[in-house]
């Protein structure tokens, strides 16, 4: 009987633990968001985090978008050529980039950079008593460390994704015209004629959610880190892995929501 | 603490109340404070009175509950049971906003300094004043220079990053941060740990001077006996989560209490046996 019940008990413990973790993260996020509506506001810290995400992530997001656009054109051309539909390449590229690849790949890139950076910084502050010091200096750590970063994540990511969309389409156009012999004006006309506001908008909404999640996981893992260097290292890894998985899972949920409309 | 009674037994709650009444209302009063982490009972009924404008040193070995005691007073840890009063107000029952307001009157020097490495020294020193918008950034620089001078540092140190400072300088900056907002209660967590004996004596001297100048109540935790004698007017010893002795810091080492004397003199043999993990 134990042979049957022990694995079930382990599964039960795992599920309960997961529920507890999700609940804690949700409460953490709610508390941080509630601080955005109550003074004092730390504008300087928000701008710092915004600059960190939007400006310093730009090179890696830009490169990812350009190369993705280039590869997408080559792959779709190969496939579409099999049934004489190469004229739809421009349409496929712009749709894929704006609706899907722009936000998801930018999200994953930013997850690697920002989640890790937030988790390491706040985790180090936790294990060196700097977070306790904030409390003793009459400063709420959630308001000071977490809230500005969450807001910056949610607002900076759409900007990054907008740039990624433009560069991704441009990468595709570059290869289509220079390598595959598309006429530049025709390719661009096909791109813009086919593109709708909802395509871009849904991508930007996704980007905002992903930015929030990336900042949330980074701050949450850092805030709850324990022990010394090993604890901070573990928090950093967990932040990157969790935010990456959440981006992919939420991408499905959000796509389903937009698809239903 | 004037009027101290050597026969006082801090473990006796009635005696503690009478003692407090004799010397006036305590600035900080703890009664029956208990805190457990997992299965480990770290504080097991701490009773402690700290008189206004006095300097209390809490002694105890590693893991005896010293840090948890002051973290409970500071509100960084919520005890499972007990009463903690500051100026007669039960801080554990205060609403969050009032509790935060109470924090404005408290300063803290952390063991490792806990300076914010993302900020220059001057912003560290005036962090509380800036956070509460009590002064502007331009004024804060001047105030930082003033407080840095009080702890024997040049104004130019204000522009450095904490990582550019030596351990002793970091401790001085942390002390400057603790006193910058002119608190009326200051906590010192192992103020001399990691410093050489001379720098330790310098920091102790600065602590005594600053506390005297501010007219503040000071609570320090340490296991450095020389430091305890220099800083403390009163001393209390915590063992297994309870205050087992309280008396003048000057008597440490010859207090007549076997536990305190063993600890103060660093003797292997005595009532305190190091617990080995089984």
Distance between the termini of chain A: 50 Å
Give the integer mean of the pLDDT values of chain B: 84
So, CATH architecture of the domain at 1-99 and 224-265 in chain B? 3-Layer(aba) Sandwich
Give the overall silhouette of chain B. globular
Helix content of chain A: over 70%
Indicate the overall shape of chain A: globular
Secondary structure: number of strands of chain A: 0
Secondary structure tally, helices of chain B = 10
Helix content of chain B: 25-40%
Which regions of chain B are unreliable across 5 or more consecutive residues at pLDDT < 50?
1-22
Poorly predicted regions of chain A are none
Overview of this structure, please?
The complex is a heterodimer of chains A (261) and B (278). The longest helix of chain A is centred in the middle third of the chain and has 39 residues, at 89-127. Chain A is built from 9 helices and no strands. In chain A, helix 4 packs antiparallel against helix 6. Chain A is mainly alpha-helical. Chain A has one domain (43-255). The mean pLDDT of chain A is 92. Chain B has a domain at 1-99 and 224-265: 3-Layer(aba) Sandwich (Rossmann fold), CATH 3.40.50.300. Chain B is built from 10 helices and 10 strands. Chain B has a 6-stranded mixed β-sheet, with helices on both faces. In chain B, strands 2-1-4-5 form a 4-stranded antiparallel β-sheet, with helices on both faces. The longest helix of chain B has 18 residues, at 197-214. Chain A binds chain B through residues 40, 121, 125, 128-130, 132-133, 135-140, 144, and chain B through 71, 74-76, 100, 103-104, 106-108, 110-112, 114-118, 127-128, 131-133, 177.
Task: Give a brief description.
Chain A is mainly α and 261 residues long. Chain A is built from 9 helices and no strands.
Topology:
The complex is a heterodimer of chains A (261) and B (278).
Chain A: H1 2-36, H2 43-54, H3 58-81, H4 89-127, H5 130-136, H6 141-178, H7 184-194, H8 197-223, H9 229-260
Chain B: H1 13-23, E1 28-37, E2 40-50, E3 55-59, H2 66-74, E4 81-86, E5 89-90, H3 96-103, E6 106-109, H4 121-125, H5 127-131, H6 137-150, H7 167-180, E7 185-189, H8 197-214, E8 217-222, H9 225-231, E9 234-239, E10 242-248, H10 258-265
Helix pairs in contact in B: 6-7, 7-8, 8-9
């Amino acid at each position: 009987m134990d042979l049957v019940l022990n694995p079930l008990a382990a599964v039960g413990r795992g599920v309960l633990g997961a529920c507890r973790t999700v609940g804690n993260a949700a409460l953490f996020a709610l508390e941080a968001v509630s601080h955005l509506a109550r003074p004092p506001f730390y504008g300087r810290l928000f701008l710092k985090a915004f600059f960190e995400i939007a400006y310093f992530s730009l090179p890696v997001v830009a490169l990812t978008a350009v190369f993705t656009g280039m590869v997408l054109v080559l792959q779709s051309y190969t496939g579409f050529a099999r049934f004489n539909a190469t004229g739809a390449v421009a349409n496929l590229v712009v749709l894929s980039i704006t609706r899907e690849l722009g936000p998801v790949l930018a999200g994953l890139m930013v997850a690697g950079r920002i989640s890790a950076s937030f988790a390491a910084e706040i985790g180090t502050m936790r294990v060196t008593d700097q977070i306790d010091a904030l409390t003793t200096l009459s400063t709420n750590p959630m308001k000071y460390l977490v809230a500005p970063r969450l807001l910056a994540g949610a607002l900076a990511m759409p900007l990054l994704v907008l740039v990624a969309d433009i560069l991704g389409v441009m990468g595709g156009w570059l290869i289509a015209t220079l390598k595959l012999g598309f006429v530049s004006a025709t390719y661009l006309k096909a791109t813009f004629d086919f593109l709708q506001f909802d395509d871009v908008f849904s991508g930007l909404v996704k980007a905002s959610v992903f930015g929030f999640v990336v900042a949330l996981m980074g701050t949450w893992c850092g805030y709850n880190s324990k022990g010394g260097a090993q604890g901070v290292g573990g928090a950093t890894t967990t932040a990157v892995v969790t935010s990456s998985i959440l981006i992919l899972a939420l991408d499905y949920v959000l796509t389903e929501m937009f698809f239903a409309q | 603490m004037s009027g101290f009674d050597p026969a006082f037994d801090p473990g006796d709650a009635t005696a503690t109340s009478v003692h407090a009444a004799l010397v006036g209302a305590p600035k900080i009063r703890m009664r029956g404070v208990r805190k457990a982490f997992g299965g480990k009972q770290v504080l097991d009924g701490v009773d402690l009175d700290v008189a206004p404008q006095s300097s209390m040193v809490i002694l105890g070995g590693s893991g005896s509950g010293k840090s948890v005691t002051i973290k409970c007073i500071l509100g960084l840890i919520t005890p499972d049971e007990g009463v903690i009063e500051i100026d007669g107000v039960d801080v554990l029952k205060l609403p969050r906003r009032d509790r935060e307001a109470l924090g404005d009157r408290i300063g803290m020097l952390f063991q490792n300094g806990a300076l914010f490495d993302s900020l220059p020294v001057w912003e560290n020193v005036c962090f509380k004043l800036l956070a509460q918008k009590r002064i502007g950034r331009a004024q804060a620089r001047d105030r930082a220079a003033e407080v840095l001078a009080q702890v024997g540092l040049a104004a130019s140190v204000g522009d450095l990053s904490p990582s550019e400072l030596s351990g002793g300088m970091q401790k001085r900056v942390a002390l400057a941060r603790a006193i910058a907002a002119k608190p009326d209660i200051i906590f010192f967590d192992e103020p001399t740990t990691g410093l050489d004996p001379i720098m330790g004596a310098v920091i102790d001297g600065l602590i005594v001077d600053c506390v005297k100048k501010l007219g503040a109540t000071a609570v320090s935790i340490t296991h450095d006996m020389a430091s305890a004698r220099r800083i403390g007017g009163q001393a209390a010893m915590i063992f297994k989560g309870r205050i087992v002795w309280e008396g003048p810091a000057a008597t440490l080492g010859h207090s007549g209490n076997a536990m305190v004397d063993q600890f103060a003199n660093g003797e292997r043999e005595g009532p305190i046996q190091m617990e080995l993990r089984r």
